[in-house]
Input
Amino acid sequence: MGAMDKIIEIQNISRTFGEFKALNDVSLDIEKGTIFGLLGPNGAGKSTLINVLSCQMRPTTGSAFISGLDVVTDKKDVLSIIGVVPQENSFYDELTVTENLRYFGSLYGVAVIDIKKRSHRILEMLQLTEKGSSRASTLSGGMKTRLNIACALIHKPEVLILDEPSVGLDPVSRKALWDTIRELNRQGTTILITTHYMEEADLLCDRILIMHRGNIVVEGTPEDLKNTVGDRVIQITSTPGDYNALTDRVNTLEGVASCTVNENGLKITLTNEQALEHVIETLEMGGEHITNIESNRPSLENVFIHFAQEEWH
Ligand SMILES: Nc1ncnc2c1ncn2[C@@H]1O[C@H](COP(=O)(O)OP(=O)(O)OP(=O)(O)O)[C@@H](O)[C@H]1O
Ligand SMILES: [Mg+2]
Output
């Protein structure tokens, strides 16, 4: 593969509100064709960053480009190639589903005939076909979320930016949303999505960025991030299973973050995989015969908690 084909370039963006710094010198490139996940605890600055990228808020300093277009000086052109699904619904309650699509289509200068054709496909993709002539205000919560997404797709954006799109969706609708996002991505759309669902981030995203208090903490593939944390969660079963007598000794070993007794035996979190050898030695010297060892990598949830902790800042 050649040099990375950047579609989003963020260069030293900061955004302050009075004294408060919501974004602190954020720089990031996103490659064309990726599904990119933006994670971080409440108030991390995710929506602020999205607002800057979607021309809804000017950065205090720094610049950002989408497809080479400056989000501040080329606002009109940027808006024509991005679709934005904001955290709050942006459609009109008093219009029907189809009227909303027509409205957003004309806003983006899409020809009436194309609006018709695309509306049909988009409603099908988002399972809203039978609600086409219903007033938006009468839709269920999850349907409103899907309409919010539909409105962002009518002009066939190159980049789709979604701020927590799966909040309030039932598990089936959420899976359908993932399928929709994957399908759009297959068709060439670059996706930037924020979410608090770690499973969603893990399953959907090619790359993930974790933010905290306006700063980038870590960026990489979900696999990279799990490896970065390095912790392993070990479950050991042994006979005779005199576990309580052993936890103190195991806990003092280097590379052991914690050792507790659970229904299956000992649950040990290692910060260093090499420590497992010493754990086994310690148990054997304590008269235990090990019958089972299970070793699990941390989940993305462990990674999130690890990086979202205060100690990192
Ligand atoms: N218009 C504003 N005026 C003042 N402060 C703001 C404004 N917009 C955002 N902030 C502050 O900036 C910080 C980041 O907010 P932001 O909405 O970007 O967080 P977030 O990562 O999207 O959080 P969440 O997961 O809760 O949606 C917060 O402390 C917020 O209060
Ligand atoms: Mg937000």
Remarks:
- The pocket of magnesium ion (ligand 2) is lined by residues 46-47, 87, 163 (CB under 6 Å).
- The chain has two domains: 6-227, 231-296.
